[in-house]
Amino acid sequence: MTDREIIEHFNSGRQEEAFNGIVDAYTERLYWHIRRFLCSHEDTDDLLQDVFIKIWAALPSFRGESRLYTWIYRIATNEVLNHLRKQRFKAVISLESASGALERKIDEDPYFNGDHLQRELHKSIQRLPEKQRIVFSLRYFDEMKYEDMAEVTGTSVGALKASYHHACEKIRNDLQKLL
C-alpha cells in the first residue's frame, strides 16, 4: 500500500486499514533504522512497538504538511533519541560509557552476521556524535535524500551535508587504523 493509499484509507474512516498499511510498509525499514542506533535485536523490537504506538496515537493529527514517510521517520528518530538519552543517563549513574555499552552490544549480538570490518564500521558509527550518527545512518543505510533528511531532522540541507562529510571522515579514519 502506498503512502497516498494509506492517507486515503485514513481520511475515509478506515483507520485500522491505514495503520495496518503503515505497519506493513514500514516495519522492516524502521526496524533497521532503529537497530543501527540500539545495536540489539531485543531493544529494537521493544522500541519499534513503542514507535508504532506513537504513530497510531499521532495519526489523527497528521496534517499532510510533510510526507507520511518523513513524518514516520521523524517519530522513529525522536523515539530513538529519547531512548538513547535515557541510556546515557543510566550509563552516567553506573559510570559506564553509553557508546561503550553500545559497542559491547555489537560484539555480543548473536544476530549480527557481518564480518570483522562490518562490525568495526558499526562500532565507529556508535562513536559519532548523535547528529552525525543520525545523518550518516539516514544517508548511508537508508539512502535518504538530503531534502527528506531536512524534514526528518529539522536541519538545513547544507548542515546535513557538512555533518555527513564529517561523519564519513571520522569513520574513514577509524577504519584506516585497522588496515
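(ticket continues) Second input and output from the same batch:
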Amino acid sequence: MKNLSSWLIAIFALMFWAFRAIATVLYSMGSEFIAEPMDITMEIALLFITFICICFIVKRKLLPTAIYLVAHGLYYGVYLYQNVMPAIEGTATMDSYISLLVALVGIIIPLLAFFDVLLDKSRKAHPVDKKTDWFYKNKEYDRKMDERADRNQYRTL
C-alpha cells in the first residue's frame, strides 16, 4: 500500500468497523447509540468477517475484498432499501435518515476498497516485494557468500 488513498480507505474501514462494534455492544446492553443494528446476530457475524477482510485488504488481496463488498452489500443493501422507502414516501423520521447515512457509508467504503485493490497497479505488476527479492531470489548472492565463507581462515590461538 503505497498510496495515501489506500491508507485512508483502510483507516475509514477500521473506523466504521469500530463504530459498528460500539453500536452493537451498546445495543446488546440495552442502551441506545446513534444507529441500532438491523439484526444483532448478523451484525456480530458481519463484524468478524469485516475485521478479517480488512486485514487482507491491507495486504492487497482481491478475494477478501470481494467478500467484504458482498457481505456489506447484502447486509446494508437491505438496510438501505428499508430506509430509502420512507424517505421517498415522505414518512421518514430522523432515525431513518441516520440509518440511511450509516447504510450508505456501509456500502461506499467496501466499494471504494474493492476498486482500490482491483485497480492497484503494483499488485498486478509486482506481486512480490522488491525490497526482499534481492536477498531471497538472488542465486549469485548466495554463491558469492558461500565462496567468501570458504576462503575465510581465521587464526586460532
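Agent notes: Residues 62-89 form the longest helix (28 residues). The radius of gyration is 24 Å. Closing as not reproducible unless the customer responds.
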